[in-house]
């Protein structure tokens, strides 16, 4: 669906790029001519991913980096600049999350999520942003958030994630204005349900929960990683050069179904409607 050279020779850093959605985005970028640098805590995961991702060609540099640690982020960008000579695009995709009643959380559990999602995204953004501003080079930052951030509704049972992702969205919009003069563009994606090992193991531990959640999606299916990857490719490309500070939701209509007061009526049959309309029409 895209020109094969859409991202030709663009250097892209993807945090959490060795697994799940980060990896799917990276694979699509590679097909479109980009050069990748993937980073996360587990070096062995990155090494395996890099090897598999380059099986069809392309270049994937990897480096272990904990985005909660300022020094490790500086080391990451030093290494990527030394390897490729530049960075054009940053995808802030690394995250942590799990379901829990909020009153069961310790301060440590809250920090575990906030530090990866909010602090980690802020630190990578700051480190690269300063380098771009100093060198006069611009670029694009894509932040992966969630529908409960984009809708503004938040969500029970994942409250540290809801608070952190809302902060990331605020960072996106704030810097879209403040850093535009430096040629730095900010965009975000709010994915709905995309099955990945990382998300499912922590958020959808039973088939019953999966079934309940699925019922919330008007399209009655989960998303394909390739659908998300295509959106991520467009948003960071020059073709989307006038989109700045925007978050694009890709969720099969899930959040809208939850938002409309009468959408619960979706399951009524024609017979049910015959009865209801007999009751509601003026006699
Ligand atoms: C179809 C539908 C689609 C539904 C899909 C809809 C998608 C919703 C949006 C999805 C958003 C995502 O981000 S999905 C991304 C999912 N991927 C990830 O989370 C990958 C990275 N995650 C991790 O590394 C870990 O899970 C995480 C806990 C966040 C961080 O690990 P750490 O090693 O730093 O932390 P730990 O030392 O293990 O734990 C820190 C504290 O947190 C507590 N803790 C850890 N896990 C806990 C848990 N499950 N329940 C309660 N408490 C927990 C511990 O007890 C500790 O508290 P104390 O005991 O007090 O010390
Ligand atoms: N899957 C879904 O349905 C949805 C996902 N999202 C978002 O999509 C993104 C990807 O999630 P998904 O692919 O599902 O899950 P994954 O668990 O596969 O991805 C999370 C990644 O973040 C990395 N990571 C976690 N902590 C750190 C850290 N401290 N430093 C560096 N890297 C870290 C992990 O690698 P490592 O453990 O090696 O550090 C992992 O690669 C996240 O931002 C998530 O919030 C949003 C809505 C829905």
UniProtKB/TrEMBL annotation:
The keyword Lipid biosynthesis applies. It catalyses: a (2E)-enoyl-CoA + NADPH + H(+) = a 2,3-saturated acyl-CoA + NADP(+); (2E)-dodecenoyl-CoA + NADPH + H(+) = dodecanoyl-CoA + NADP(+); (2E)-decenoyl-CoA + NADPH + H(+) = decanoyl-CoA + NADP(+); (2E)-hexenoyl-CoA + NADPH + H(+) = hexanoyl-CoA + NADP(+). It is found in: Peroxisome. Its main location: other. It is an enzyme of class 1 (oxidoreductase). Keywords: Fatty acid biosynthesis, Fatty acid metabolism, Lipid biosynthesis, Lipid metabolism, NADP, Oxidoreductase, Peroxisome, Phosphoprotein. Its EC number is 1.3.1.38. Signal peptide: none annotated. GO terms for biological process: bile acid metabolic process; fatty acid biosynthetic process. The keyword Metal-binding does not apply. CDD domains: TER_DECR_SDR_a. Pathway: Lipid metabolism. GO terms for molecular function: trans-2-enoyl-CoA reductase (NADPH) activity. SUPFAM superfamilies: NAD(P)-binding Rossmann-fold domains (SSF51735). Interacts with PEX5, probably required to target it into peroxisomes. Participates in chain elongation of fatty acids. Catalyzes the reduction of trans-2-enoyl-CoAs of varying chain lengths from 6:1 to 16:1, having maximum activity with 10:1 CoA. Has no 2,4-dienoyl-CoA reductase activity. This is Peroxisomal trans-2-enoyl-CoA reductase.
């Amino acid at each position: 669906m895209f020109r094969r050279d859409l991202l030709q020779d663009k250097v892209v850093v993807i945090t959490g790029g060795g697994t799940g959605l980060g990896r799917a985005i990276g694979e699509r970028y590679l097909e479109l001519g980009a050069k990748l640098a993937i980073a996360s805590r587990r070096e062995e995961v990155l090494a395996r991913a890099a090897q598999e991702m380059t099986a069809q060609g392309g270049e994937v540099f990897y480096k272990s980096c904990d985005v909660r640690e300022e020094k490790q982020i500086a080391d990451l960008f030093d290494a990527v600049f030394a390897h490729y000579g530049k960075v054009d695009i940053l995808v802030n995709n690394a995250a942590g999350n799990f379901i829990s009643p909020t009153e069961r959380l310790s301060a440590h559990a809250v920090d575990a999520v906030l530090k990866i999602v909010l602090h980690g995204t802020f630190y990578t953004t700051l480190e690269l942003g300063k380098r771009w501003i100093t060198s006069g080079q611009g670029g694009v930052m894509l932040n992966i958030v969630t529908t409960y951030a984009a809708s503004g509704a938040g969500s029970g049972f994942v409250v540290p994630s809801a608070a952190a992702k809302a902060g990331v969205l605020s960072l996106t919009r704030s810097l879209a204005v403040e850093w535009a003069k430096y040629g730095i563009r900010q965009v975000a994606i709010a994915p709905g349900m995309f099955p990945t090992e990382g998300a499912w193991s922590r958020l959808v531990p039973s088939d019953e929960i999966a079934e309940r959640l699925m019922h919330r999606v008007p399209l009655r299916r989960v998303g394909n990683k390739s659908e998300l990857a295509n959106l991520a490719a467009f948003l960071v490309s020059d073709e989307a050069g006038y989109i700045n500070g925007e978050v694009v939701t890709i969720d099969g209509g899930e959040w809208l179904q939850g938002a409309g007061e009468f959408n619960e009526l979706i399951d009524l049959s024609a017979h049910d409607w015959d009865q209801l309309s007999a009751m509601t029409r003026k006699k």
